Amino acid sequence: DAGITQSPRHKVTETGTPVTLRCHQTENHRYMYWYRQDPGHGLRLIHYSYGVKDTDKGEVSDGYSVSRSKTEDFLLTLESATSSQTSVYFCATRQGPDTEAFFGQGTRLTVV
Amino acid sequence: KQEVTQIPAALSVPEGENLVLNCSFTDSAIYNLQWFRQDPGKGLTSLLLIQSSQREQTSGRLNASLDKSSGRSTLYIAASQPGDSATYLCAVRPGDQGAQKLVFGQGTRLTINP
Fold first, then answer.
1. What are the tens digits of pLDDT across the range B85-112?
2. Do B37 and B89 form a contact (C-beta atoms < 8 A)?
3. Which of B13, B81, B84, B106 falls between 20 and 30 A from A50, CA-CA?
4. Cβ separation of B42 and A106 shorter than 8 Å?
5. Closest approach of chain B CAs to the CA of A16, in angstroms?
6. DSSP calls for B7-67
7. Which residue, among A25, A43, A74, A88, would best test binding to B if mutated, counting the most B CBs under 10 Å from its CB?
8. B51-86 tens-digit pLDDT
9. Rounded to whole angstroms, how far apart are CA atoms A35 and A42?
10. Listed residue (A37, A34, A80) closest to A57, CA to CA
11. How far is B54 from chain A (nearest CA, A)?
């Protein structure tokens, strides 16, 4: 795989608190993505990045923001966590837009 | 809107059998299709990537085919083993210019019985 590390791997947080998830990659891939996986919905794209400081929204971006200040790091922030954001979050990377996508091990987030 | 369907949702077969997993998509305008496996509580592991200009790709006991015109892909697993038990997901990259997301199917949960 593409040397993708997600942190933390598990987190429980309270409604209304801010949360930041980190994705770190060692392969110098240009493209990075945040997905969430939920039963009945499968995997859905939250935000993606096509370069340092270049990001765009996915299909379920409300309530989330991202930042990419370095090639290797892509941060996902929940500004004010809600119970509907309880999910498993996956980071993915790829070198080019049509190349193979690689996924991290996921972060299980529970909002109580 | 591109939609991806995988049927059946679950499949159980005895060890040693050859099997086929199915993936269908509604819009034939795709850049590529990728197959993944996901073990419980784990991330997705890439198995095969097929570009839209290709008909099939092979890796070891796995062979994936793509028929873009009919909106179908199959993943063939030869001589199945208990270690092949996992959920298999297919995903397409839609052909909309600039569309970066992968559209995933819901997956087929495969169980190989010893």
1. 999 999 999 887 666 789 999 999 999 9
2. yes
3. B106
4. yes
5. 26
6. S-SEEEEETT--EEEEEEES---EEEEEEEEE-TTS-EEEEEEEETT-SEEEETTEEEEEE
7. A43
8. 999 999 999 999 999 999 999 999 999 999 999 999
9. 10
10. A34
11. 13
Q: Contact B107/B11 with Cβ under 8 angstroms? A: no
Q: Which residues of A touch B91 (CB under 8 A)?
A: 43, 101
The pLDDT assigned to B100 comes to 77
Rounded to whole angstroms, the Cα distance separating B89 from B107 reads: 4
C-beta atoms of B89 and A48 within 8 A: no
CA dist A87 → A58, A104, B108 (Å):
16, 15, 20
Longest dimension (CA), chain B: 46
pLDDT tens, B12-45? Answer: 999 999 999 999 999 999 999 999 999 998 999 9
**Structure tokens given for B17:** 């059998």
Across the interface, whether the CB atoms of A43 and B49 are under 8 A apart is answered: no
The string of DSSP letters for A44-92 reads EEEEEEEETTEEEE-TT-TTEEEEEEETTEEEEEESS--GGG-EEEEEE
Find tokens 């993505």 and name the residue: A33
The stretches in chain A having pLDDT less than 50 are none
A59: number of Cβ within 10 Å: 11
How confident is the model at residue B44, as a pLDDT? 96
Contact B36 A98 (CB under 8 A): no
Q: Which amino acid makes up residue B22?
A: N
